[in-house]
Fold this sequence. Notes:
The protein is an alpha+beta fold. The chain contains two helices and ten strands; from the N terminus they run ββαβαβββββββ. Strands 4-5-6-3-10-9 form a six-stranded antiparallel beta sheet.
Amino acid sequence: MEQKAKKIGKLNVIDLIAIVLIVAVLALAAWKFLGGNGDSINAEQAQTKVTYQVKVEGVAPELYDNCLKHLPSPLMASGALVGGQIESVEKMDYQVMDATGYWVTDPEHVTLLFTVTTTTPTADVMTTKVGDQEVRIGKTDYILKSEYIEFSGGTITDVSWGD
């Protein structure tokens, strides 16, 4: 015995479910295209330039010269470019405490100070993020990663906003 699908007007239930799913997919695509707040993708959002410095201590001296060869270097996170770049690097002495309790220069290591610039939507400046990392002065586990350069355990020493 054949059963017929329930009909609602001229449509059966299966047709109605298919139409609802198609409308939902179109609505989701429109929401993604226009942005969650209704702004068009092409609309200009106000951007703020963020410059910060990352201090990496106790690295081999030859890394300084290797880093210089690749500057400026675009920032990356999770294998994708995230906007912004490492602009410059400075080399400083790395200080260690000797057996007598005095600070001395370690000839086998240096400290590198990287200057990084990026832009972030002005509305998000209070929680500046590069990739999935927040940029905050004193943060000691910052991972500085670009196309050719990567250091973990850096400390953010300075942050400034604006031109």
